[in-house]
Amino acid sequence: MHGSSKLQPDFSINGIGQPMVVLIIFAIVWAVWGITAGLVSMAIAFGIYAVLSLVYNFRTENHWFLVTFVYQCTIVAFALLAPKVGVFAIPEASFKPLILIVIVELAVLIYIISTKKLRWRGREILELAARNVNEASNGFTDRPRPLGKIDCSKTELAGFTHFIKSNLIAWSFREESKVIFVPINTGDEYRLPLGFSSDYSENTWVAIDMDGNVSVQISKKDYLRYKEALDFDQLAEAMGNLFIEFFERYKRGESVRIIYELNRIKVHPFS
Question: Do 243 and 140 share a structural domain?
Answer without folding.
Answer: yes
